[in-house]
Amino acid sequence: MRKKLGIYIHIPFCIKKCGYCDFNSYEGMEGVIDEYVRAVKREISLISYELSAISYQPYKVISIFFGGGTPTILKSWQLLEILESCKKLFNLKTDAEITIEANPETLTLDKLKKLRRGGFNRISIGVQSFNDKLLKRLGRVHDSKKAYQGILSARNEGFENISIDLMFGIPDETLKDWEDDIETTIKLNPEHISTYNLTIEEGTQFEKLYSEAKASHYLPDEDRQVEMYERGIGLLTGTGYEHYEISNFAKACSERSESNGRKCLHNQIYWRNEEYLGIGAGAHSYMDGERRWNIKNPEEYINRLKIGERHAKRKPSAFSLQPPTAGSERLDGNKVMGETIMMELRILEGINLKSFKKRFGVEIKSTFSDAISRLLSNNLIIFENGHLKLTHKGLLFYNDVAAEFLL
């Protein structure tokens, strides 16, 4: 049986880095993009060689995800060159999900047309809000008009699987603002919607701005954020979207034989703690019980792969010594189990108990008996129809639940 594999391609460039963003992204580096594209293609070639050299178990790539940063800051031909390298060198499933993240400001009809015809079949558009006041608060470079245009243009150019990212808990945002954003999104009829609560991350501009008492009152309080989250769930499920993961909603899809519908296939690989390759500056991989991560700085990443390319001509490196690697970690069985529970609980259907035992050879109830006892007594989890899942209360306190399983 072939193993499933996902591929993540990181494009770390942005027109402007948002004040809330703690991702590995950079503004003002357009001058290195050409070299970066060449470096990514070199890494794809190296990984392809290494997979075949170590006789890795036959696999099928079921998803490719271009994330960032802003992947659509690249020219269409650059994105398609990277995608073609993946198609040529990896064993790609015929109907693989191929996603590109996009900022509305970087979308043109010509670019969308070329991306769709070139093989991208899913687009995730980072709208965040349709309210211009809130977009300015977030420091986004697009306005609501650009967001509308980008979504409608993607549909007109043949994208049948569109995802829209929304954010709540924005400074100065009211419950009515959030309801308006949800209702506007529903009218645009995307196949998938992600709703993320703004969090103030360490080291960001927002941390400096909103950690001060005089500015913190601009943020909706915790009760209001919970109210926004629950209101979003109500509006979306009430119009036919399935709430399938803590922050994600999807339509069913009668045209597809599998039950996945329009759920994001790539993210389900992460949530089920399955194997994936990360390519690009700062990208993470998880294969055969080992987690590894690449150099974060794009220029250092490029330089390492120049060295790697020269080295590969003489003697290609082993998988664990892949040139742009910054570090790696071998995970023991208990840690993998704990992380699998932590991640898979994000999916609302929960953890299939039989599948878990087949994968790890142990019962969840006996291995994590103390944690499960505490969580059951606090009504945060439930055993139901052969699954361990979060209760509604557990959704709201997911971080506390997850911490119980980190060994």
Estimated radius of gyration: 21 Å
CATH structural class of the largest domain: Alpha Beta
Model regions low in confidence, pLDDT < 50 over at least 5 residues:
316-321
Number of separate domains: 2
- Please count the helical segments: 17
Compute the separation of the termini in Å: 31 Å
Tally of strands? 17
Helix content: 40-55%
CATH level-3 fold name of the largest domain: pyruvate-formate lyase- activating enzyme
- Strand percentage lies at 15-25%
Average pLDDT confidence is: 92
Largest sheet: 9 strands, mixed
**Within the largest sheet, what's the order of strands?**
9-10-8-7-6-5-4-1-11
Q: Overall 3D geometry?
A: globular
CATH architecture type of the largest domain = Alpha-Beta Horseshoe
What would you give as the CATH superfamily of the largest domain? tm_1862 like domain
Report the structural category: alpha/beta
